[in-house]
């Protein structure tokens, strides 16, 4: 995309979205990667239709979703195709097992099927086909746009704060030079890159709020929280609160993470981009390794700056994303 010795304007949001879709398709479906990609494309369509339906006034008419409107029929068609693909994938793996070829691989689907077989053998019941399909869908939904958003906001901020871009590149060069590929072990030695990623997660958290159900009456300071009600914890507001982060809460300053996550805020527990408790994000380590690897590789090859055509308009769909893309000018180094 960028000439050997040149510069190009690229919408990094769209490129990084395709990249993280590829990563999650490979991790979830390994050898069946191509079918995985098709599945995830369909799921993207499904999300778009769902948001259209949720935003439509007809959403408030009881029973409307059962009426065969154009939109509802499209939704059913996409859902059916998604189920067919996953069923086929599972069928093929089971078939190979029957033929004695134990072909369950180290991908998410393989691990899930293998542990499910054991569960059924030992306890007589396990996950149904529907459960497995839903788990595959959830991983894609939870893991694709979130990681793409993290990487996109990081690149945007490093375009705006060139001093941090230079520091990060120096660190990457010190560890890997210009050509050595960063690997899983050494990626954790990148302290400045880690600080930048944490500050981006604070500044533009891909998941902007958490929902919780209240199980018993309680009080949060003077605020009564009533059993049976749902409440929302606005991550993005907590992450920018000057009482918790200091007067520079609305400034990008990775240095605040220099002494680790637990010392970054004035009040512990003010940083929770991956949620918390029993439902904490199970993909957080995966996402952080992916983000560090990708960022290190980009910093090794390119310097980048903001394009004059960039329009700042974050919006919240599945994750906090740049509504009009993120055009950056990349220079080969
Ligand atoms: C920067 C990237 C990511 C961010 C910011 C993020 C954030 C979150 C948050 C805030 C939650 C809700 C946690 C809670 O309610 O306490 C969550 C749940 C979840 N995430 Fe992530 N996530 C990311 C990447 C990923 C990836 C790559 C995967 C899969 C490989 C993944 C899989 C999941 C799953 C399956 C859940 C549901 C867990 C449950 O309900 O038990 N996430 N994530």
From TrEMBL:
The keyword Transmembrane helix applies. Gene3D superfamilies: Cytochrome P450. The keyword Transmembrane helix applies. Keywords: Heme, Iron, Membrane, Metal-binding, Monooxygenase, Oxidoreductase, Transmembrane, Transmembrane helix. InterPro entries: Cyt_P450 (IPR001128), Cyt_P450_CS (IPR017972), Cyt_P450_E_grp-I (IPR002401), Cyt_P450_sf (IPR036396), Cytochrome_P450_Monooxygen (IPR050665). Belongs to the cytochrome P450 family. This is Cytochrome P450. One of its GO terms (molecular function) is oxidoreductase activity, acting on paired donors, with incorporation or reduction of molecular oxygen. GO terms for cellular component: membrane. It is found in: Membrane. Its cofactor is heme. It comes from the Eukaryota. It comes from Beta vulgaris subsp. vulgaris. PANTHER family: CYTOCHROME P450 CYP72A219-LIKE (PTHR24282:SF254), CYTOCHROME P450 FAMILY MEMBER (PTHR24282). Heme binds at residue 281.
């Amino acid at each position: 995309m960028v000439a050997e010795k040149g510069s190009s304007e690229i919408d990094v949001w769209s490129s990084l979205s395709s990249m993280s879709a590829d990563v999650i398709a490979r991790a979830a479906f390994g050898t069946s990667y191509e079918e995985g990609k098709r599945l995830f494309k369909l799921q993207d369509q499904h999300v778009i239709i769902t948001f259209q339906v949720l935003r439509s006034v007809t959403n408030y008419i009881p029973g409307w979703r059962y009426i065969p409107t154009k939109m509802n029929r499209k939704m059913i068609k996409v859902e059916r195709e998604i189920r067919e693909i996953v069923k086929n994938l599972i069928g093929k793996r089971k078939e190979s097992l029957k033929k004695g070829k134990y072909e369950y691989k180290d991908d998410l689907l393989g691990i899930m099927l293998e542990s499910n077989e054991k569960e059924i053998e030992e306890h007589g019941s396990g996950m149904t086909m529907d459960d497995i399909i839903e788990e595959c869908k959830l991983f894609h939904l939870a893991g694709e746009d979130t990681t793409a958003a993290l990487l996109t906001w990081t690149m945007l901020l490093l375009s705006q704060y060139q001093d941090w871009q230079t520091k990060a590149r120096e660190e990457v060069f010190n560890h890997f030079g210009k050509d050595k590929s960063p690997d899983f072990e050494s990626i954790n030695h990148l302290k400045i890159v880690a600080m930048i990623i944490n500050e981006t997660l604070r500044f533009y958290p891909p998941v902007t709020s958490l929902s919780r159900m209240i199980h018993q009456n309680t009080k949060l300071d003077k605020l009564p929280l009533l059993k049976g009600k749902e409440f929302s914890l606005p991550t993005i507001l907590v992450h920018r609160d000057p009482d918790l982060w200091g007067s520079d809460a609305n400034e990008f300053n990775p240095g605040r993470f220099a002494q680790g996550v637990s010392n970054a805020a004035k009040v512990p527990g003010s940083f929770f981009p991956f949620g918390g408790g029993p439902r904490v994000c199970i993909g957080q380590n995966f996402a952080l390794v992916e983000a560090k690897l990708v960022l290190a590789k980009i910093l090794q090859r390119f310097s980048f700056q903001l394009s004059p055509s960039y329009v700042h308009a974050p919006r919240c769909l599945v994750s906090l994303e740049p509504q009009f893309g993120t055009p950056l000018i990349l220079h080969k180094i």
